[in-house]
From TrEMBL:
Keywords: Membrane, Signal, Transmembrane, Transmembrane helix. This is Uncharacterized protein. InterPro entries: DUF6185 (IPR046176). The keyword 4Fe-4S does not apply. Residues 1-17 form the signal peptide. The keyword Transmembrane applies. It comes from the Bacteria. The chain crosses the membrane at residues 218-241, 262-280, 303-320, 327-347, 374-397, 418-438, 479-498, 519-536, 542-559, 669-689, 709-730, 742-764, 770-790.
Amino acid sequence: MITTVLLGLLPVGPASAADDECRVSELTSARVTASVRFKHEGEDYSKAEGLLTVKVPKSWSRAPDLLLNGDTERYRTAMRCLLRFPDDPFPYRDTEGRTAAPEVTVEEKWVTVDQRVLTWVTGLQTRHFGPWSLTVGDRLWRLELMPPSALGRAWWRKVTVDLGGRPARQVSSPPTTGGPTELTWVQRKASGKPPEIDVTLQPPAAKASAARWSEHPWYVLDALGWLPLHGALLVLVLLTARAVRRESVSAPSAGAVPRTTRNLLIVAGLAFAITVVQLFDDTLLGHFARQGTAPFWTDEHRISVHMGLALLTGLGLCGFGRPGRAALAAVVAATGSGLAVACRPEWFALPSGLWLDWVNAPDDVLRFRDGGGLVAFTASCACVVFVWLVGVTAVLLRLWRAAGSTAPGRTPGRFPHAWLAASAVLSVALCAVSLWSAQNVWEHQSWLSRRNASEDYGLWHMATLFADLRWFPSDWLDWFHGTYFWWWAPSLAILAVLRARDTAAVPVTALPSAAELRTLKAFFVVCVAPVVGWYAGVPLPLLSLLALWLVLSGLLALGTRRAVLNRELPRTGHRLHEVARGADRQRLLNAARRHRELHAQLRRLEQGQQEEDRFRLERELDRLHRLPHPSPPPGLPNTWIRLPPSIGPVELALAWGPRATAWGNGCRAAYFAAVFAVPGVVLLVWADHVRGIRWADKFVQRFGLVDTVTAAVALELLWVGAGFTLGVLWRVLPGRRGPVRAAGLAFVYASPVLVQLAGSRLVGQPLGTWPLELSLVLLVLTLTGLAMDIDTFRGERRYWPTRTGLLLSVYQWRTASVQMAFLVGQLVALVTIWQQLKGNDPMILIERSPSESTGGSGN
């Protein structure tokens, strides 16, 4: 009682409005615990997770407000008192991620608030999350506890700092307990003052590099690191086109070959040019803005430059695709509308330079809001998307039509009007969703702001929303072209070359020619091979590309010696594909069927199930293992020659595949792969885009929802391309049966990923879902190989009740071995999937990626 009286007689300073609003005097009995935990290993960037637990007495006047809906002003005020600085009416954090709203629980005497936050260290700026401030330097990071002012006299019972296995370089106040990597400050009784915590830590070199690489001037080198990959792909396509041109095809329909080859060269150059724009539009403009070079373009009119580059690249696609008159007229109108917004923004209530400053120029924000400036700029973004969609569709149509056209000159065909209308609708929808996602980001980052405090909130909201949306033209290039179109168009152009050569091939050859093999290798690298090579913020994709090329070349070199049709016949020097020609396929299939029947009789004879002349069976089998001599001596026209060891009629028939040509085998394998890949695509899309908090993350990403659809399409196309490659290379791959051929190609696909996984282990990056994807690719290709072998003997399908029975007969397997192999495969698949999907769901982080933050340094 004496202490209370003395405290009441002490002079006190004037109470602030925030103190009155938060009833700070009623929070002196609140109890607080806080913790932060760093995680460096198994992450692309260092991650810090924080937990703040505040127990306030029920007697606090704001305690009932904690149970209200999150959209109410009283709820935000109460949370702002406990989690932030209540003097700031507009708290905004774009470096704080949250998986959910704070959890509120009610006890007998207390109301408890648990807030979980996190942040990834992707740059060198200061990051605020929860009650923590992390200042990121080049090599040392500084962590400080910044308690909310309303809790300055509360009882901070326990504060824990886990440095993720890295001892601290400096600690301001000694901890109560703990060790070198985990520090704990404990207050045994209420002291009225939170602990002063200031810790300096040194993260792993790989994580420090990853954070530093996104800053100036290193982000320019990041683009330069990815440029050699696209340059190497361009050189590969150029060499492929030269090889195709040198290997002429003489046929009436050979005119499509030079036309498709010319298209391939143009598309490769156009894709490379757009890639250069996509890589350097943000980085160079940001670099020049930092250097003060050409401020009129790099600072004052930077967004207009992005808009112009996006429209110019889309017009380049339309120029090559040559859509019809109606589509061209629509493209011209959309381009004019977009350029009008970029060049004369004041006509549409937009500010000069397309930048709003709600603090210093509130009148511009009011004119922007009342004049419909946001709608006008969103419409200009839709024009950019429309021009691109028309150009992409026209390019793909021209590439494929050129392969089937026999007349010289312009490729026949028109741009479908239905696709034109669909492009317009999709453009508007995509931009509307982008605006909606920007609003969701705003809600997440300003969730504690005072909404009805003054007019300033509306100005701040509108300016921030436009600041996010104005980067749409640049982000569109980064997402659509940088993720998908740069390999879609060249892949289709290569397919058109292969299709044209197949149509013009007279006579039909058994094996792909040297030029076709080079073309197939280019197709696999461009279309199928995964793009990896990011290590601690440093892009080194050429390492993985080199590994892929070496393994693919080694596989084909092995096929020249070990493939069935490349095996040499004894004593003649001829190869099997020179003797067993395509015209003999039906005779080979009949011989293979008879061979299996005789072997079945021999097995029954050994088991005593029938009586048969063993020597007669063996003589007939011996005749089936012979082929007519390719060049018999004079006077001996009926000379025969034996097949190579371990090669029988069944293996010879399987080596040809189900179709007469390599192109036919490729189309058939692509069909099978498309069917078998559907469950795998669903599983991977769920694992990468839907599982856990990933689905909620889509609602705050500009292209999050549509990216889920395009990612599924891209995965399906990728696996269809892998199946097509397997089918076309069917006759030159080593192995006697389909699964063995598929395993070789699956290993080629895995080679760059294995390089990435090895590097990820060294720098402590996560493996992601790569092991799951590799297992699915192997499974899809294996099933495709089995289906190709079954389809080879499809003429016997009506004699077997199931395809499994036909497969057992073709492979001459016993039921027990098949069941054991199936069981082992199921166990391996289950273990792989479990290893990939177990563990905690990823947490959400709302912030720009490193590339976006460099581009948006001006906002």
